[in-house]
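User: Structure with magnesium ion, tokens only please.
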Amino acid sequence: MAIRGIIFDMDGTITKSNVNFAAINREAEVPDEPILEYIETVGEPRKKTILAVLEKYEARAAETSELREGVREVLDYMKKKGLKAALLTRNSRRSVQTILRRHGLKFDAILTRDDAPPKPSPYPVLLLSKKLGVKPEELLVVGDFHFDILAGKAAGAKTALLIQDCPSEKETHSADFCLDSLSDIISIIEKGA
Ligand SMILES: [Mg+2]
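Assistant:
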């Protein structure tokens, strides 16, 4: 089935990864594990303190963000072909706004952790499917982390892992495609996936 829409991850996919999670974990004194899930295990006021540290680092990263190569090329191509483009991130709505403004980017739909349960939940993928009017199986979920692939697969979408020198299937978390560069998306669409 042809791809009619793409759901992009933000950090490390649209932008070069620049959120320093090691520094966040150190400053907020949290263990080395996914921070949004960890936050859910602690009570107030600890939760608020951790979130404040996370948001401080994310805001700084957004203000100095750089786009990954191929982003504009792929979005322009999609627009020309009438394909829908969405952004799905575990980052905050505020950081997304900063990044979109800084780089002059537009998406047909956006979901952040302030809007829906975060990846690896498939829920935000299904919600975007509705918002875009594109069936899950006609969507491609693109990201640089295994949560992106897990969320996409569980929603019944096609998935693409953005990673250098595509490794073994185990390391790509059984993504349908492995991308060395974002512009590889164009040939996937051209082939009719
Ligand atoms: Mg990412």
